[in-house]
Amino acid sequence: MRSALGGALTTALLPVLLAQGLLVRRRTPRLPEAASTAGTAGTGTGDVRRLVVVGDSLAAGVGLADHRESIAGLLAERWAERDEVSVAWRVLAQTGLTAGEVAGLVDPAALADADLVVLSVGVNDTKDLHSRKRWRRELGDLLDALLEAAPAADVLLIAIPPMRAFPALPRPLADALGARAARLDEDGEAVAAARGPRVRRIDLSLPDDDGLFANDGFHPSTVIHAALASRALELVSPRCPSA
Question: What pairs with residue 155 in β-bridges?
Fold first, then answer.
């Protein structure tokens, strides 16, 4: 009953939601992706750990000056410091891509030696109104492609953020997209779990902090990237998978 009622309300509000969506698109500034898509952190001796971050605008560091402020650079720094190793990191990402489109970024040559892959997708599938069936299929295909291209790596799937909290989104658009994002995130968690122990999920409940978003009110600031890096590191074994 609740689902049917929610669907009826969304249908009734559709003209308002479409108008708000167009307004948000016109008013939201287009921020560049972060500079420096590859680097090395740490000065440890021995084997180098290899991190690849794949996905959409979060992975691309939109709204940040440099990937040293994004999950790629921050996770590499923290991993290197914790385990006293060097971490070579690389970003394969582009803003605006859905799960099906991110699959086109999967580069076997770049992923073959990866020890860890971090994946960010889902926001664009949410706002582009992809069905849950399509999302599950395309996310599953993407995860399978990553697991095949990076045979020694664990894959960490970043949860879809709570879009209801995005400052750039007015209500009721924020509520509608927030509800859709939550449903797709539930599906994403199930799809990841079905791939076995090599695929795990990074929670994206927002920290209680100021300045969570870039100045467009849509993309995360380095505060969220830092929180994600900390949560990701908790899932990384101190022993490199290839060691």
Answer: 117, 199
Cα–Cα distance measured from residue 174 to residue 165, given in angstroms and rounded to the nearest whole number: 7
pLDDT at residue 207 in the model: 67
CATH code assigned to 37-234? 3.40.50.1110
Bridge partners for 88 per DSSP: 40, 50
163-202: pLDDT as tens digits: 999 999 988 899 999 999 999 999 999 999 999 999 999 9
Q: In the β-sheet with 48-55, what is the strand arrangement from edge to edge?
A: 38-41, 86-93, 48-55, 116-120, 154-158, 199-202
Kindly give the residue spans of alpha helices, DSSP state H, lying in the chain: 2-12, 14-27, 57-60, 71-83, 99-102, 108-111, 123-127, 132-149, 173-193, 222-234
pTM of the predicted structure, to 2 decimals: 0.89
